[in-house]
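Forum > Structural Biology > Help requests

Title: Can anyone predict the 3D structure of PAS domain S-box-containing protein/diguanylate cyclase (GGDEF)-like protein?

Hi all, first post here. I have the sequence for PAS domain S-box-containing protein/diguanylate cyclase (GGDEF)-like protein but no way to get a structure on my laptop. I'd be grateful if someone could post the structure tokens.
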Amino acid sequence: MSITLSGAEPGNRTVTTDLLLIETDDDNARVIREALSRDRDCCFEITRVRRLNEALARLAESDTEVILVGPDLPDSESLGESIRQVRDASQEALILPLSGDAEWLPHTLRYVIQRKSVEAGLRATEQALFEEKEWARVTLSSIGDAVIVTDPDGCVTYLNPMAETMTGWACEEAVGEPLGEVFHIISGQTRELATNPALYAIEQDRTVGLDANCILVRRDGEENGIEDSAAPVHNRNGEVSGAVIVFRDISQSQEMTRKMAYLAHHDSLTGLCNRALLDERLKQAIRLAQRHQKQTALLFVDLDGFKRINDTLGHAVGDHVLQAVAEVLSDCVRTTDTVCRHGGDEFVILLTEIERPEDAIQVADKILASFATPLIVEGHPLRLNLSLGISVYPEDGDSTDAIFERADAAMYHAKISQHPNYGFAQRDRDSWPTTRDCIDRRLARAFEMGEFVLHYQPQIDMVTGRIGGVEVLVRWLDSERGLVYPSQFMPVAERTGLIIAIGRWIIQEACRQVAVWRREGHDSLPVAINVSAMEFHHPHFVPFVREVLHETGIDPSDLELEFTESVLMHEPELSMTHLQQLRDIGVRLAMDDFGSGESSLRYLNRFPIDTLKIDKCLMEGVTADPATSVVLRSLVAMGKDLKRRLVAEGVETAHQLGFVQTQLFDVAQGFRFGYPQTSEDFSRLLEKEH
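Reply #1:
Sure, ran it for you. Structure tokens for PAS domain S-box-containing protein/diguanylate cyclase (GGDEF)-like protein below:
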């Protein structure tokens, strides 16, 4: 049915209704048409058929709204049978039987049609209301917020599933209960009962929010921080008929906020404060020192050789070492002091309100004493050496940047000097550079001025007992400090990239010295040189070695290049290529510190290595630890199975020498046979043997 409206008054409304007239008699059909045409309120679109079968065929094709059935249809036994078949064909249509009088028909149709229209409207309204309620139910059941509805008296009428979870009340149990019983909230600060926002919303007829730091107490006593708002509900007359409370659990977001605030000021690995928090505390410490006429000290702590731990034992062990160091450092200071991880293997300690600089020295001594014994990390006994730099406010600066800079530079002074373990800004100020850049320049200047020298340590052939080779060791002959060892300046050289230039100089100078010894008539004397990762992976390293051999004229077999496991395993396939190129030249190749890392046996077998040098740390444990002897024997057996030449490093005692002899090492070196010495002294040693 279609309805067309024209004007505001009902009289101006035209209703068009599809009508199917089933009538055999033409006169009766005409009378019905005339009667229906006189109705001004309804307009009928009439379709007439004469037989029941025609009507049924028509209904099969399309629906109609009103069907008038004549009494004497030729293809029907009776009017009742006709109506039954028509009803089966169109169950929604209005079906009326016809009689001789047609005057009643318009009024009856108008009433019935209007009633059906009203009923249809009601059904549509009910359907729309059902859909809206279903939409609201699904929405309330799906949202992450909790929702509670109350009546005007503050009694619960509805809880959505999230509200059931957060309050511990089932909706069926909560309905009719006072809101305060179901929605029990307290102040997070005073622990007192908090004012219920729904009551405010009803009384003031406006949306209100919950006080900050409110806690919802579940039915089982569990507490959760929440945030919420309440709004009044109105009936059709605009009167307040209840309230709706919407709230959510903010415990996780509060915890995340606290965690993010913590991580913003703390190191994630060690849990120590970071540089940002240390800056704040240092500023505060300086203010307190000024106010109370005290002093403040800053200690820079650096782990010497930490990179080697990472390279040989892996980064996981390295992380555990840093955590253990953080714990030891924290145990060495007061609770009012601050330990900070400055980055990498550097730590900074803030000592607040000290009386005199000697107080900082006492802490430094305590720290050094704590690391005097090996640190056991995942079963590995690790002896850690520290370099400490100390600066004191106000003697060494009147700002945080100045104090930091002085302590940092003092630490580097300790690293490269002969001082036992720490540098003191106040005492050593005139004897060391004040910044890392100055230290970098000083090392570069030392290289340019030729302050580096080579020392040579003999390697003894265990079959003949004679010198069978020599290892080259670099030293820095500083005019002020004397002899400086590689562990004290090589980290700076690696950081600045100067290690490449130093490494090339070592190879050139060592090969030149071998050529000198050959000209003096000495037998072939292979020289072993350790190569750093930066040198080895430099694209021009192999051509450089070839050029040096050509310039010095020595036999390539008299040059042995040593690489640690970590260097080779960093990029094993690329290492394989470079090693093979060196092997093709005729250079001998050695793996240094064998047994201290985690190299792959698959690659170890494929690397064109001639010599395996057993790590001296393992040799140190031969006497004290039986397990170390077992490990050493396994490494020796492995080396022999791989048909590699075996060199024992760090042989210092008779017991260690006996072990080396019984295990049939090919070569041994260490203080037992000779200390590193200058080329002149080593030449005299060769003369004696000759």
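Residues 26 and 422 are 126 Å apart (CA to CA). Residues 104-142 form the longest helix (39 residues).
Shout if anything looks off.
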